[in-house]
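ok trying this again, last paste got cut off
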Amino acid sequence: MLKGLKSAIKWIVAIALICAIAVGLASINGLKVSRTIATVNGSEITEAEYKFYVEMAKLQVLSEQGIADEDAAKEFLKNGTVEDKNAAEYIKDKAMQQVIRIEVAVVKAKEAGISLTDEERSAARNTEGMDEMLKMYKVSADTYADVMEKTYLADKYYTKLTTDDPEMFVPADDAIAAEINTAYALVQHVLVSNTPAASEDGTVPETEGYAEEAKKKAEEVLAKALAGENFATLISTYGEDPGMESTPDGYLITETGHTLDGQSQMVAPFTKGSFAVAAGEVNPELVESDYGWHIIKRLAIDETHADYATVQENAKNSLMSKNYEAYLDSLIEKMDIVKKDNIIKGIKVKY
């Protein structure tokens, strides 16, 4: 489906750094502002920093929702919901949680006597060669540098914790295995196209009534799949996705629909349909996308898969990140956190 089912990624998905990973700052929403919008034990979080995290959270949520179209994104940010909360407010809350976690790590790092070397600080504040990016996203070099400096310090705090106790955040093997089949889906599908393919001489066949007949065929194929007929045979007999020939073992995708290399993203309905069922199951519903109808079967991801070591390591790192988040959240309860709600309320989430 890397040929027939991927939608181009128009912006780089930015995932907020919570553990010891220096993030690639791909997209930033910022103005040159320096008002303090919150403090953690007296350590200040500026409005500009918060806006950075709002943008990070926004891009992450849009990616999770499979939204890349500008008009769709604007509509979602205005009227959409996530976990029964207005999308924009959900994004702002997520951003606040993330920026406070980082600030907590900064505070604890300083309490532990951790600081950046001159070389580390220079690397954190280096914006050489980033003029176009800074200009495009209207972020000041100082804001970028401030965020990165705190990120470096938070990274060093994580490193100290895991040096003192290497097993502190390491998840159990069974938790890693469960995370693999939660965060990833290995799927095969039968695509029944809603439009006829052009003939070899370029002639476009008659399209009237084609979609209706194609849907009937897709329903018949789905019935066969649910009845237990060999899925590989159904693919070879009815499938119209060339990718299934080149990737017969199935597509390995993340919860956002991205392929493992991050270079391609499946269309949202396909991703949703893939994660809607457990490994070993055929989705009992026809999944419709712009390409036609999909009959989807999700497969188990085990040690025999060529990319198992990669997803295993990714799953482990993801759980370590979540464990670190939980640790920071436990520290938050013991800290004096003050938020300036009047300023925060006035910050808008825009596309």
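PB: full thing came through this time. Residues 87-111 form the longest helix (25 residues).
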